[in-house]
Design goal:
The complex is a heterodimer of chains A (about 400) and B (about 270).
Chain A (H helix, E strand, L loop, with lengths): L1 H11 L1 H37 L5 E5 L11 E2 L1 H9 L4 E16 L2 E10 L7 E6 L7 E5 H7 L6 E6 L10 E13 L8 E5 H6 L6 E2 L1 E6 L5 H11 L3 E5 H11 L1 H32 L1 H9 L4 H38 L16 H27 L3 H10 L1
Parallel strand pairs in A: 4-9, 6-8
Antiparallel strand pairs in A: 1-11, 1-12, 2-10, 3-4, 3-7, 3-11, 5-8, 6-9, 7-8
Helix pairs in contact in A: 1-10, 2-7, 2-8, 2-10, 2-11, 8-10, 8-11, 9-12, 10-11
Chain B lengths: L1 H14 L6 E5 H7 L6 E4 L9 E9 L15 E2 L2 H8 L18 H11 L8 H8 L1 H34 L2 H9 L4 H42 L10 H28 L2 H4 L3
Helix pairs in contact in B: 6-9, 8-9
The chains are: A alpha+beta (about 400), B alpha+beta (about 270).
Amino acid sequence: MRATLAAASLLRHRARTLLAILGVAVAAAMLLDMVMLASGMRESFRQLLMSRGFELRLAPKGTLPFDTDATIPNVASISSTLRSNPDIRLISPVLGASIHVPVGERTVSSAVLGIDPLVQGDYEMTEGRDVTDMGSIVVNDYLLAQLGKRIGDTIDVATGYDPQTRTYAGRRPLKISGRVRFLYGAAEQSASAMRRETLEAMGGPRDRASLFMISLAAGADAERVRIWVERTFPNVTAISIATAIASVDERLGYFRQLAFILGAVSLFVGFLLVTTLVTVSVNERAGEIAVLRAIGVARSHIVQQIVIEGVVLSVVGALLGLGLGLVTARYLNTILSDFPGLPVAIDFFLFQPAAAWTALGLLVASGIGAGVYPAWRAASLPISTTLRREAIA
Amino acid sequence: MIPQLAALPLLFLLQVPPPQRTIAIDEAFAARAGLRVGERVVLSATPGALAGDTVSIGAIYEKSADPSEIARGDLTVRMHLDHLQVLSGYGDRVDRFAISTKSDAAIPSVLEGINRVAFGFRAHRSKDIAVETSRTFQVVSRFHRAIGVITIVASSIFLLCIMILKVDERRRDVAALRLMGISRSSVVQSIVIEAALVAILGSILGVIIGWLASRFVNWHYQELYQTPLQFSIVTPSVVLLAVALSLILGIVAGVVASMRMARTPPLALFGR
């Protein structure tokens, strides 16, 4: 009966109810988007870092991987010391540089990684074979398009360009052996990879690495190994997944704060809308409620009926808003994916069931909260005075 | 004798060690490392190196407002060019030259002149470089615009709903006025004027709250990112848009609700 009375009350003013549901839906959509934004970027980044199972990264002291041109010397010696730690399973030294490929009258430049194909964690093969010999190179789709070449073609690759003398430190023909997708690469970024030995032979810095990626043995404590690495090698900064996420949080903390503020505002707007609507509805039905009370209907019954009205508005609006929120999240994610240098795999708005449940839960709670005040007022109406006032009116 | 006396100060000078080089560091660097003017630090181009060049801090400066560096939190040091060239092993090289022209009109001819004879480098307009480096802010700006549109839609629905409720509350007043013989158009006009007044008063309050929120946002993010950049600016066009939007919505809601009410028989409005 409570639900029937609540439904009758909502259906009495259809236009008003529809507008309220629409308002709650937009607020719910915004709330869902902001909950997704607050947690999505961090989770997406964590998934990306963990995708190849490297829990630690070593960069030159005081820097983040590939943030500067600085390199770590003595790769062989460092690798040997790292291997002596039983907690360390795999070591992947990576050297970053630039390559230049003459194509007709123009020169195509690209970032290149010098890697060991057996242990690399920077890219996934999409076609062809990996850099199994010194004479091969793998490239991403963007660079392949820039070069206008195909897998199997040979290109003239140069490194160490000196703009003053317009000369190169090293130059050699390399065969494009495969097409790859760089996990940490941006969408419109030329990137390639070759064996580290090849890069060194072409004039790259010898026995140096821009980055070490370290995979730990099962059950190893990443924080303990990180501290051990920093104590053993004073010229490197060891970055665990947790410290990398903290660093990203610091750089993109603005979006989390924005998400929190806009999420709170959306929730408040939804709450205010439902409260106003239910309060006005209760004021209009003061006489009706007084009659119900006069014929013996319990206060709790009145309270429940009014709270149900608020919850129905919130739940229907929230369900509509969840769909709307997913659409707007996709659109907003497309905008933010244009960030310069942002890896393609990073999503600012990542849908997680927990985010949807959180948004829905918050809205239902606010719907209940919104109905409580008008319900309390309605249940507290003095029966005789209200009936007299209504009769005179 | 005279030449010997004249040489004495020179000999004295030669025995004095050369003055220590100075550097300037930004405020964030000074705060994070707990450094003050006059303190000595060791500089090295190699991360983690124990040996280096000992210099003293000559100044602490405020970083310029650069949107491209806003979220990076980089610490910066300024030093003399020759000092950096020696320290980094760059030799007689620089990353870029900044050139100031006598007038804006001279820029195209200067650019063309340099690029015609350039060997190993290229000249660009500062404005073009600024556009390229502010891509991050362009993306953030687009994101803000999209969020703004969603917020406007949400607030429009909210406003419409509130205004309709506000007009609905006047059912009995309208019924009484109609029974007294007041014309429909007069009733509609009075309700629309009331709705417009409410919308204007609400938007004035909203502008004040928005201005205070904008000041808070600027204060918070300037402290957070240690930058003089303005994050939120309340411009006359923004105020005009907000007031115009709320006024239009208020009037629309007033017209829709009052027309509906004016068409309803007065006794029905009384619930009879």
